[in-house]
Write a structure and sequence with these properties.
11 strands; 4-stranded antiparallel sheet; 7-stranded mixed sheet; single chain; mainly beta
């Protein structure tokens, strides 16, 4: 079956960096566009960054533009989220998502990962 397994979350100080990874199994990775979403306590899940199946056209939420970078390695079936200049408001559970061909949106995702906690202290 399809599995998306996130890793790399943890505790960081404001201004610091973390790199999230999402390893995919059970699907033809190159056929799927990928995304990172996050959900903070008491808030709705939101899109953070998406990337097409080919790795082109990365897209970012305004709140993370210039600080986060999404990338993918199709040879390793893995998508990454490099997070720099972290802020306390980035604290959330971060989820990896996959959608066949088309970039995932919150209302249309084929597969979700289990999530990884990111906590940023001030």
């Amino acid at each position: 079956q399809v599995r998306l397994v996130e890793s790399g979350g943890g505790l960081a100080q404001a201004g610091g960096s973390l790199r999230l990874s999402c390893a995919a199994a059970g699907l033809t990775f190159i056929s799927y566009s990928m995304g990172w979403f996050r959900q903070a306590p008491g808030k709705e899940r939101e899109s953070v960054a998406t990337i097409s199946w080919s790795g082109s056209s990365p897209s970012y939420a305004d709140s993370v533009k210039g600080r986060f970078t999404i990338s993918r390695d199709n040879a390793k079936n893995t998508v990454y989220l490099q997070m720099n200049s972290l802020k306390p408001e980035d604290t959330a559970v971060y989820y990896c998502a996959a959608r066949f061909h088309i970039v995932p949106v919150i209302t249309d995702v084929d597969y979700w990962g289990q999530g990884t906690q990111v906590t940023v202290s001030s």
